[in-house]
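Sample intake sheet
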Amino acid sequence: MFSKKMVMIVVVIVLIATNIIILSASSRSYSSYYEPGRIAISLIAPFQEAVTRSIRFVRGIWDGYFFLVTAAKENARYREALSRAIEENNQLKELKLSNVRLRELLDFQKTITKRVIAAEVIGKDPSPWFKTIIIDKGKEDHVGKGMAVVIPNGIVGQVIDASSHYSKVLLIIAQNSSADALVQRTRARGVIRGETSERCTFKYVLRKHDVQVGDQVISSGLDEVFPKGLAIGQVSSVTKPDAGIFQEVTVVPYVDFEKLEEVLVVLSPLKQTIVKEK
């Protein structure tokens, strides 16, 4: 089958040839016979006008076709350039955000007297019961069981297993995790335990101690895992039962565990005992 381009070329050639033949015939008629030539012009002129209009129409379509093809190619090039620009812009944004996080880790590192090492979060346990993450540092990097894992916002958890190049971290919001803590304002002591939700309970806080919503809870250092004074979370609710010697305190951690990307591992725990996974 002929292409559209070939058909249009043939049509234009035929129209041009027809127009030339008619003009030639009318010229001879006009020069030989004045009156008959006038009649011939009257008959031929409308046809010539139709041919001329047809040629102009085809030429307009042809020019428009090439214009559209050129515009489509330019549009494709612009879209490709725009895609590259968007991709480069996203990469620059990610690099900028990564630099901000690493700078915060570096500044926070200066406030900790113990040795630390930065690690990247490369995996997460989907189980709602064993809330753990995997980091890209292990025994070859001097990371071992019982080491505290933190970020500038607060405590993340502790290492519960380590291979040569990777480690598993039990998050502080896991039910089988615990940390000795105190209320910064009143020094009321207790133990932070994880819950099934993204919250913690502050257990064994005596009823006589002053604990209020909004109080900041920090690590006490007495568990010999987490250095003293690290932020844990904020008290969200306090209930004092009619019976018993302890209050019921709920704490919302400062760390957003869904957005963890980089962490710091404290390399010098005071002891290596930990709460193991059930």
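Comment: Confidence is low (pLDDT under 50) at residues 29-34, 269-278. The chain is about 40% helix and 25% strand.
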